[in-house]
Amino acid sequence: MLQSSPRPPAMTGLVLTAGGARGAYQAGVIKRISEIPALAGKPSPFQIITGASAGAINGAAIAGNSASLQDGARLLVKLWSNLQARDVFRTDSGALAQNAGRLILDFAFGGLFGAGRVQSLVDSAPLRGFLGKHFDDLLDNIGTAIDEGHLYAFGVTATGYHSGRAFTFVQGREGHPLWNKSRRMAVATRLSLDHILASAAIPIVFPPVALHNGHSTAWFGDGALRLTTPLSPAIRLGAERLLAIGVRCQESADSLLRTELSTSEDFESDLQRPPLSQICGTLMNAIFLDHLDADLDHLKRMNEFVAAYQDMAAQLPERQQLEHENLREPMRSVLPLVISPSADIAVIAKTLAHRMPRSVRYLLDGLGSPDAQSADLLSFLLFDSAFTRELIQLGYRDAAQRIDEIEHFLVSAAATRQTS
Question: Does the predicted TM-score (pTM) go above 0.90?
Protein backbone atom coordinates (compact mmCIF):
# COMPACT_ATOMS: atom_id res chain seq x y z
CA MET A 1 0.00 0.00 0.00
CA LEU A 2 1.38 3.40 -0.98
CA GLN A 3 -0.30 6.70 -0.27
CA SER A 4 0.99 9.90 -1.74
CA SER A 5 0.18 13.32 -3.06
CA PRO A 6 1.94 15.34 -5.77
CA ARG A 7 5.57 15.84 -4.73
CA PRO A 8 7.81 18.86 -5.24
CA PRO A 9 10.15 18.45 -8.21
CA ALA A 10 13.73 17.19 -8.13
CA MET A 11 14.11 16.62 -4.41
CA THR A 12 17.50 15.65 -2.98
CA GLY A 13 17.66 13.17 -0.13
CA LEU A 14 20.27 12.69 2.60
CA VAL A 15 20.66 9.13 3.88
CA LEU A 16 22.56 8.68 7.13
CA THR A 17 23.35 5.09 8.03
CA ALA A 18 23.79 3.45 11.42
CA GLY A 19 27.07 2.81 13.20
CA GLY A 20 27.16 3.71 16.89
CA ALA A 21 30.20 5.86 17.69
CA ARG A 22 31.18 5.71 14.01
CA GLY A 23 28.43 8.26 13.40
CA ALA A 24 30.98 10.98 14.18
CA TYR A 25 32.36 10.41 10.67
CA GLN A 26 29.12 11.74 9.20
CA ALA A 27 29.51 14.96 11.18
CA GLY A 28 32.86 15.59 9.50
CA VAL A 29 31.43 15.03 6.02
CA ILE A 30 28.50 17.38 6.69
CA LYS A 31 30.85 20.01 8.12
CA ARG A 32 32.87 20.13 4.87
CA ILE A 33 29.73 20.19 2.73
CA SER A 34 28.38 23.11 4.74
CA GLU A 35 31.46 25.12 3.73
CA ILE A 36 30.66 24.99 0.01
CA PRO A 37 30.42 28.68 -1.00
CA ALA A 38 27.31 28.15 -3.13
CA LEU A 39 25.47 26.79 -0.07
CA ALA A 40 26.66 29.45 2.40
CA GLY A 41 23.86 31.35 4.10
CA LYS A 42 21.23 29.24 2.38
CA PRO A 43 18.81 26.53 3.57
CA SER A 44 19.91 22.92 3.59
CA PRO A 45 20.01 21.38 0.10
CA PHE A 46 18.33 18.24 1.46
CA GLN A 47 14.54 18.28 1.21
CA ILE A 48 14.33 14.68 2.43
CA ILE A 49 16.40 13.28 5.30
CA THR A 50 16.31 9.71 6.58
CA GLY A 51 18.41 8.03 9.22
CA ALA A 52 18.71 5.06 11.52
CA SER A 53 20.57 4.67 14.81
CA ALA A 54 23.40 7.24 14.94
CA GLY A 55 22.12 8.41 11.57
CA ALA A 56 18.80 9.31 13.19
CA ILE A 57 20.61 11.51 15.71
CA ASN A 58 22.63 13.21 12.97
CA GLY A 59 19.57 13.52 10.77
CA ALA A 60 17.62 15.27 13.52
CA ALA A 61 20.38 17.88 13.84
CA ILE A 62 20.25 18.60 10.10
CA ALA A 63 16.45 18.46 9.79
CA GLY A 64 15.97 20.78 12.77
CA ASN A 65 18.38 23.25 11.19
CA SER A 66 17.04 23.03 7.63
CA ALA A 67 17.07 26.82 7.42
CA SER A 68 20.88 26.72 7.73
CA LEU A 69 23.07 23.72 6.93
CA GLN A 70 25.99 25.49 8.61
CA ASP A 71 24.11 25.65 11.92
CA GLY A 72 23.29 21.96 11.69
CA ALA A 73 26.91 21.08 10.94
CA ARG A 74 28.17 23.17 13.86
CA LEU A 75 25.76 21.42 16.24
CA LEU A 76 26.86 17.97 15.05
CA VAL A 77 30.54 18.77 15.44
CA LYS A 78 29.90 20.19 18.91
CA LEU A 79 27.96 17.11 20.03
CA TRP A 80 30.40 14.53 18.69
CA SER A 81 33.68 16.30 19.45
CA ASN A 82 32.83 16.65 23.15
CA LEU A 83 31.22 13.24 23.61
CA GLN A 84 32.21 10.98 26.50
CA ALA A 85 31.07 7.47 27.33
CA ARG A 86 29.33 8.74 30.47
CA ASP A 87 27.10 10.87 28.19
CA VAL A 88 25.80 7.69 26.53
CA PHE A 89 25.64 5.01 29.24
CA ARG A 90 26.50 4.53 32.89
CA THR A 91 30.15 3.63 33.22
CA ASP A 92 30.47 3.38 37.00
CA SER A 93 31.54 -0.01 38.32
CA GLY A 94 28.47 -0.24 40.57
CA ALA A 95 26.03 -0.05 37.66
CA LEU A 96 27.97 -2.56 35.59
CA ALA A 97 28.39 -4.95 38.53
CA GLN A 98 24.67 -4.76 39.30
CA ASN A 99 23.80 -5.58 35.69
CA ALA A 100 26.36 -8.41 35.63
CA GLY A 101 24.79 -9.86 38.78
CA ARG A 102 21.35 -9.83 37.21
CA LEU A 103 22.75 -11.49 34.12
CA ILE A 104 24.31 -14.27 36.20
CA LEU A 105 21.02 -14.80 38.05
CA ASP A 106 19.12 -15.04 34.77
CA PHE A 107 21.52 -17.57 33.28
CA ALA A 108 22.14 -19.62 36.40
CA PHE A 109 18.72 -19.63 38.05
CA GLY A 110 16.33 -18.34 35.39
CA GLY A 111 14.96 -21.81 34.85
CA LEU A 112 14.04 -22.10 38.53
CA PHE A 113 12.96 -18.59 39.52
CA GLY A 114 12.21 -16.93 36.18
CA ALA A 115 14.40 -14.68 34.05
CA GLY A 116 14.04 -11.28 32.42
CA ARG A 117 15.95 -9.24 35.00
CA VAL A 118 18.37 -7.86 32.39
CA GLN A 119 17.16 -5.68 29.55
CA SER A 120 20.57 -4.77 28.17
CA LEU A 121 24.29 -4.89 28.84
CA VAL A 122 24.46 -1.23 29.89
CA ASP A 123 22.15 1.46 31.24
CA SER A 124 21.71 4.09 28.51
CA ALA A 125 19.71 6.55 30.64
CA PRO A 126 22.45 9.24 30.31
CA LEU A 127 21.89 9.40 26.54
CA ARG A 128 18.34 10.68 27.07
CA GLY A 129 19.63 13.50 29.24
CA PHE A 130 22.48 14.31 26.85
CA LEU A 131 20.28 14.52 23.76
CA GLY A 132 17.45 16.19 25.67
CA LYS A 133 19.65 19.23 26.32
CA HIS A 134 20.02 19.83 22.60
CA PHE A 135 17.09 18.16 20.85
CA ASP A 136 13.85 19.27 22.54
CA ASP A 137 13.75 22.65 20.78
CA LEU A 138 15.46 21.16 17.74
CA LEU A 139 12.66 18.66 17.13
CA ASP A 140 10.11 21.49 17.38
CA ASN A 141 12.01 23.24 14.59
CA ILE A 142 11.35 20.33 12.21
CA GLY A 143 7.70 21.34 11.91
CA THR A 144 8.73 24.92 11.25
CA ALA A 145 11.16 23.82 8.54
CA ILE A 146 8.38 21.84 6.86
CA ASP A 147 5.95 24.77 7.05
CA GLU A 148 8.52 27.13 5.56
CA GLY A 149 9.29 24.75 2.70
CA HIS A 150 12.91 24.04 3.61
CA LEU A 151 12.16 20.40 4.43
CA TYR A 152 9.74 17.97 2.80
CA ALA A 153 10.10 15.03 5.20
CA PHE A 154 12.33 13.57 7.90
CA GLY A 155 12.15 9.83 8.50
CA VAL A 156 13.55 7.88 11.45
CA THR A 157 13.65 4.09 11.28
CA ALA A 158 13.35 1.80 14.32
CA THR A 159 12.80 -1.95 14.63
CA GLY A 160 9.67 -3.31 16.27
CA TYR A 161 10.72 -6.01 18.72
CA HIS A 162 7.33 -7.76 18.50
CA SER A 163 6.67 -7.77 14.75
CA GLY A 164 10.31 -7.67 13.68
CA ARG A 165 9.44 -5.05 11.06
CA ALA A 166 11.30 -1.87 10.20
CA PHE A 167 9.10 1.12 11.06
CA THR A 168 9.98 4.44 9.46
CA PHE A 169 8.38 7.22 11.48
CA VAL A 170 7.92 10.20 9.18
CA GLN A 171 7.23 13.82 9.93
CA GLY A 172 6.62 15.63 6.69
CA ARG A 173 4.45 17.77 4.51
CA GLU A 174 0.80 16.82 4.48
CA GLY A 175 0.12 14.02 2.02
CA HIS A 176 3.67 12.66 1.98
CA PRO A 177 3.96 9.01 0.85
CA LEU A 178 3.29 6.15 3.25
CA TRP A 179 3.87 2.45 2.61
CA ASN A 180 3.11 -0.92 4.17
CA LYS A 181 5.27 -3.77 2.94
CA SER A 182 5.94 -7.24 4.27
CA ARG A 183 9.01 -6.23 6.31
CA ARG A 184 8.79 -2.45 6.50
CA MET A 185 6.19 0.25 6.86
CA ALA A 186 5.93 4.01 7.27
CA VAL A 187 3.98 5.79 9.97
CA ALA A 188 3.12 9.49 9.87
CA THR A 189 3.81 11.10 13.25
CA ARG A 190 5.27 14.07 15.05
CA LEU A 191 8.78 12.95 15.89
CA SER A 192 9.92 13.05 19.50
CA LEU A 193 13.09 12.31 21.42
CA ASP A 194 11.74 8.81 22.10
CA HIS A 195 11.74 8.05 18.35
CA ILE A 196 15.39 9.09 18.11
CA LEU A 197 16.34 7.05 21.18
CA ALA A 198 14.45 4.00 19.89
CA SER A 199 16.26 4.16 16.57
CA ALA A 200 19.62 4.45 18.35
CA ALA A 201 19.04 1.62 20.86
CA ILE A 202 21.84 -0.75 19.81
CA PRO A 203 20.44 -4.29 20.22
CA ILE A 204 21.50 -6.15 23.37
CA VAL A 205 23.82 -3.29 24.37
CA PHE A 206 21.05 -0.72 25.00
CA PRO A 207 17.53 -1.44 26.33
CA PRO A 208 14.45 -1.22 24.07
CA VAL A 209 12.46 2.02 24.05
CA ALA A 210 8.68 2.26 24.43
CA LEU A 211 6.76 4.24 21.81
CA HIS A 212 3.12 5.12 22.36
CA ASN A 213 0.56 5.07 19.58
CA GLY A 214 -2.92 6.01 20.73
CA HIS A 215 -3.85 3.65 23.55
CA SER A 216 -1.16 1.08 22.75
CA THR A 217 2.53 0.84 23.60
CA ALA A 218 5.16 -1.09 21.66
CA TRP A 219 8.88 -1.59 22.15
CA PHE A 220 11.51 -0.68 19.60
CA GLY A 221 15.23 -0.94 19.05
CA ASP A 222 17.95 -0.01 16.62
CA GLY A 223 16.64 0.94 13.19
CA ALA A 224 19.44 -0.83 11.33
CA LEU A 225 18.40 -4.21 12.69
CA ARG A 226 15.82 -4.88 9.94
CA LEU A 227 16.48 -2.01 7.55
CA THR A 228 18.21 -4.06 4.86
CA THR A 229 17.57 -1.35 2.24
CA PRO A 230 18.72 1.91 3.84
CA LEU A 231 18.15 3.93 0.64
CA SER A 232 14.53 2.83 0.34
CA PRO A 233 12.81 5.26 2.77
CA ALA A 234 14.27 8.33 1.06
CA ILE A 235 13.41 6.95 -2.38
CA ARG A 236 9.84 6.18 -1.36
CA LEU A 237 9.47 9.65 0.08
CA GLY A 238 10.29 11.02 -3.35
CA ALA A 239 14.02 11.73 -3.56
CA GLU A 240 15.43 11.73 -7.08
CA ARG A 241 19.00 12.30 -5.93
CA LEU A 242 20.55 10.66 -2.90
CA LEU A 243 23.64 11.61 -0.96
CA ALA A 244 24.38 8.71 1.39
CA ILE A 245 27.10 8.77 4.05
CA GLY A 246 28.31 5.35 5.14
CA VAL A 247 30.70 4.45 7.95
CA ARG A 248 32.57 1.48 6.49
CA CYS A 249 35.87 1.52 4.63
CA GLN A 250 35.28 -0.58 1.54
CA GLU A 251 38.98 -0.93 0.77
CA SER A 252 39.61 -2.45 4.21
CA ALA A 253 36.67 -4.85 3.79
CA ASP A 254 38.02 -5.94 0.40
CA SER A 255 41.49 -6.44 1.91
CA LEU A 256 40.14 -8.73 4.63
CA LEU A 257 38.24 -10.72 2.03
CA ARG A 258 41.37 -11.16 -0.10
CA THR A 259 43.24 -12.41 2.96
CA GLU A 260 40.56 -14.99 3.73
CA LEU A 261 40.35 -16.31 0.18
CA SER A 262 43.96 -15.88 -0.96
CA THR A 263 45.79 -18.90 -2.42
CA SER A 264 49.04 -16.98 -2.76
CA GLU A 265 52.14 -18.27 -1.01
CA ASP A 266 52.43 -14.84 0.60
CA PHE A 267 49.44 -15.72 2.77
CA GLU A 268 50.21 -19.29 3.75
CA SER A 269 49.92 -18.66 7.51
CA ASP A 270 46.53 -19.53 8.95
CA LEU A 271 44.32 -16.80 10.36
CA GLN A 272 43.85 -16.93 14.10
CA ARG A 273 40.70 -18.40 15.53
CA PRO A 274 38.39 -15.40 16.13
CA PRO A 275 37.69 -14.48 19.76
CA LEU A 276 34.12 -13.81 20.86
CA SER A 277 34.67 -10.05 20.54
CA GLN A 278 35.48 -10.49 16.84
CA ILE A 279 32.37 -12.61 16.31
CA CYS A 280 30.28 -9.94 18.06
CA GLY A 281 31.90 -7.30 15.85
CA THR A 282 31.00 -9.29 12.74
CA LEU A 283 27.43 -9.49 14.01
CA MET A 284 27.40 -5.71 14.46
CA ASN A 285 28.76 -5.32 10.94
CA ALA A 286 25.90 -7.41 9.61
CA ILE A 287 23.45 -5.07 11.36
CA PHE A 288 25.11 -1.72 10.73
CA LEU A 289 27.51 -1.78 7.82
CA ASP A 290 26.76 -4.37 5.17
CA HIS A 291 23.43 -3.11 3.83
CA LEU A 292 24.41 0.16 2.14
CA ASP A 293 26.76 -1.40 -0.43
CA ALA A 294 24.23 -4.10 -1.33
CA ASP A 295 21.41 -1.55 -1.60
CA LEU A 296 23.55 0.68 -3.80
CA ASP A 297 24.22 -2.23 -6.16
CA HIS A 298 20.48 -2.91 -6.23
CA LEU A 299 19.72 0.74 -7.01
CA LYS A 300 22.18 0.76 -9.91
CA ARG A 301 20.55 -2.37 -11.37
CA MET A 302 17.11 -0.81 -10.96
CA ASN A 303 18.27 2.35 -12.74
CA GLU A 304 19.39 0.22 -15.67
CA PHE A 305 16.05 -1.57 -15.66
CA VAL A 306 14.12 1.73 -15.54
CA ALA A 307 16.11 3.10 -18.47
CA ALA A 308 15.35 -0.01 -20.52
CA TYR A 309 11.70 0.10 -19.42
CA GLN A 310 11.34 3.74 -20.45
CA ASP A 311 12.86 3.02 -23.86
CA MET A 312 10.40 0.19 -24.30
CA ALA A 313 7.43 2.27 -23.12
CA ALA A 314 8.31 5.01 -25.60
CA GLN A 315 7.65 2.54 -28.42
CA LEU A 316 4.14 1.67 -27.22
CA PRO A 317 0.93 3.15 -28.63
CA GLU A 318 -0.24 6.36 -26.92
CA ARG A 319 -3.02 4.63 -24.96
CA GLN A 320 -0.63 2.11 -23.43
CA GLN A 321 1.85 4.88 -22.63
CA LEU A 322 -0.83 6.64 -20.59
CA GLU A 323 -1.50 3.40 -18.71
CA HIS A 324 2.18 3.14 -17.81
CA GLU A 325 2.31 6.79 -16.71
CA ASN A 326 -0.62 6.21 -14.35
CA LEU A 327 0.98 3.32 -12.47
CA ARG A 328 0.30 3.40 -8.72
CA GLU A 329 4.05 3.30 -8.03
CA PRO A 330 5.67 4.80 -11.14
CA MET A 331 9.30 3.87 -11.62
CA ARG A 332 12.02 6.48 -11.94
CA SER A 333 15.79 6.65 -11.97
CA VAL A 334 17.49 7.83 -8.77
CA LEU A 335 20.97 9.32 -8.91
CA PRO A 336 23.16 8.25 -5.94
CA LEU A 337 26.36 9.64 -4.49
CA VAL A 338 27.94 7.72 -1.60
CA ILE A 339 30.66 9.00 0.73
CA SER A 340 32.47 6.35 2.80
CA PRO A 341 35.60 6.32 4.99
CA SER A 342 38.95 6.12 3.24
CA ALA A 343 40.57 4.61 6.34
CA ASP A 344 39.65 1.63 8.51
CA ILE A 345 37.73 2.96 11.50
CA ALA A 346 38.33 -0.29 13.40
CA VAL A 347 42.09 0.31 13.26
CA ILE A 348 41.62 3.85 14.60
CA ALA A 349 39.49 2.47 17.43
CA LYS A 350 42.12 -0.15 18.31
CA THR A 351 44.80 2.53 18.74
CA LEU A 352 42.51 4.39 21.17
CA ALA A 353 41.20 1.36 23.09
CA HIS A 354 42.80 2.69 26.25
CA ARG A 355 40.28 5.58 26.14
CA MET A 356 37.40 3.22 26.91
CA PRO A 357 36.29 3.46 30.57
CA ARG A 358 38.24 0.93 32.62
CA SER A 359 35.16 -0.97 33.79
CA VAL A 360 33.85 -1.36 30.24
CA ARG A 361 37.28 -2.24 28.91
CA TYR A 362 37.54 -4.96 31.52
CA LEU A 363 34.31 -6.52 30.26
CA LEU A 364 35.38 -6.28 26.61
CA ASP A 365 38.77 -7.81 27.40
CA GLY A 366 36.87 -10.82 28.70
CA LEU A 367 35.62 -11.42 25.16
CA GLY A 368 39.15 -11.66 23.79
CA SER A 369 41.33 -9.31 21.75
CA PRO A 370 40.83 -9.33 17.97
CA ASP A 371 43.42 -8.09 15.50
CA ALA A 372 43.33 -4.37 14.73
CA GLN A 373 41.33 -4.65 11.50
CA SER A 374 38.68 -6.71 13.27
CA ALA A 375 38.16 -4.43 16.29
CA ASP A 376 34.71 -3.54 15.01
CA LEU A 377 32.85 -4.05 18.29
CA LEU A 378 35.12 -1.51 19.97
CA SER A 379 34.59 1.00 17.16
CA PHE A 380 30.81 0.95 17.70
CA LEU A 381 31.06 1.51 21.46
CA LEU A 382 34.04 3.87 21.82
CA PHE A 383 32.07 7.00 22.68
CA ASP A 384 35.10 9.15 23.44
CA SER A 385 36.08 12.60 22.22
CA ALA A 386 39.57 11.54 21.11
CA PHE A 387 38.05 8.87 18.86
CA THR A 388 35.13 10.94 17.59
CA ARG A 389 37.38 13.88 16.76
CA GLU A 390 39.57 11.57 14.69
CA LEU A 391 36.48 10.44 12.79
CA ILE A 392 35.25 14.01 12.28
CA GLN A 393 38.62 14.89 10.76
CA LEU A 394 38.52 11.76 8.58
CA GLY A 395 35.04 12.63 7.31
CA TYR A 396 36.10 16.22 6.65
CA ARG A 397 39.15 15.08 4.66
CA ASP A 398 37.20 12.51 2.66
CA ALA A 399 34.56 15.08 1.72
CA ALA A 400 37.27 17.61 0.85
CA GLN A 401 38.85 15.09 -1.54
CA ARG A 402 35.56 14.85 -3.44
CA ILE A 403 34.22 18.35 -2.84
CA ASP A 404 33.98 19.28 -6.53
CA GLU A 405 31.92 16.16 -7.20
CA ILE A 406 29.72 16.83 -4.16
CA GLU A 407 29.25 20.49 -5.05
CA HIS A 408 28.22 19.66 -8.61
CA PHE A 409 25.82 17.02 -7.31
CA LEU A 410 24.11 19.38 -4.85
CA VAL A 411 24.28 22.71 -6.67
CA SER A 412 23.09 21.29 -9.99
CA ALA A 413 20.21 19.66 -8.13
CA ALA A 414 19.27 23.03 -6.59
CA ALA A 415 19.39 24.68 -10.02
CA THR A 416 17.17 21.97 -11.49
CA ARG A 417 14.72 22.39 -8.62
CA GLN A 418 14.49 26.17 -9.12
CA THR A 419 13.77 25.85 -12.84
CA SER A 420 11.16 23.05 -12.40
Answer: no
